[in-house]
Design brief:
By secondary structure, the protein is an alpha/beta fold. It contains six helices and ten strands, in the order E-E-E-E-H-E-E-H-E-H-H-H-E-H-E-E. It starts with 6 loop residues before the first strand and ends with a strand.
Length: 219
């Protein structure tokens, strides 16, 4: 499935936090993104599309987690191809399906995020732990948590990290209604930020969030 130019609805009024130019990427020998370019501004950008349309792949490319065939990704002046570590140090992303952190407790995992990001907000984390009802799980090993509770841990870490680029896949998957309402409000708050870019993906744009941009990869 070639994405020569996906449908992009934008209300960008600020300079880009992330610029992607001429991105090319193939999966198992089949071109997926061809000469793909876009600008990610501050606020919340939503990537939508059906199964197999490349939502997860695009998020991983923006995170610097997958190698591009060619193209340029520049985040706040840092070019991925020139300094991949400095680029990734400005990005929060974790595969929500990973079991690589399962031996850690949420408290221990949050400490690793605090150590990585200079802008980590401990006060915000306390609010997130309470708002997402993670208090009772804070010292349990992550493998003991439900899928929904683990996702809450990833989202709390993402928001508290202070990273300039935050990438979250399916932020509402497996969550209870109170947590969905809480995260919706957090994303709405994020939509007004002027220095951080938030990229979320899913099947349908979230209601109640003012989006800076929608990137539609098709059904």
């Amino acid at each position: 499935m070639n994405h020569l130019g996906p449908a992009i609805e934008t209300s960008i009024t600020s300079s880009a936090v992330l610029t992607v130019e001429g991105l090319n990427f193939s999966y198992q020998g089949h071109p997926l993104f061809i000469n793909f370019s876009l600008r990610i501004p501050a606020g919340v950008t939503f990537i939508q599309g059906g199964d197999g349309r490349g939502k997860t792949t695009l998020v991983r490319l923006l995170a610097g987690d997958l190698p591009v065939v060619s193209g340029n990704l520049q985040l706040m002046g840092v070019i991925l191809a020139e300094d991949s570590q400095a680029y990734r140090d400005r990005v929060f992303w974790i595969d929500p399906r990973t079991d690589a952190k399962d031996a850690l407790s949420p408290r221990a995992y949050f400490e690793t995020i605090k150590a990585k990001f200079a802008g980590f907000d401990a006060q915000a984390l306390d609010t997130l732990i309470a708002g997402l009802s993670l208090d009772e799980h804070i010292d349990k090993a992550l493998y003991m948590l439900s899928t929904g509770s683990k996702r809450k841990v990833w989202i709390a870490a993402a928001i508290a990290s202070g990273a300039e680029l935050v990438l979250i896949e399916d932020p509402f998957a497996a969550l209870d209604k109170p947590s969905i309402r809480f995260i919706t409000q957090l994303l709405q708050d994020a939509s007004a930020q002027s220095a951080r870019a938030w990229v979320i993906s899913g099947y349908e744009a979230p209601e109640g969030v003012n989006l800076a941009q929608i990137i539609d990869l098709g059904d």
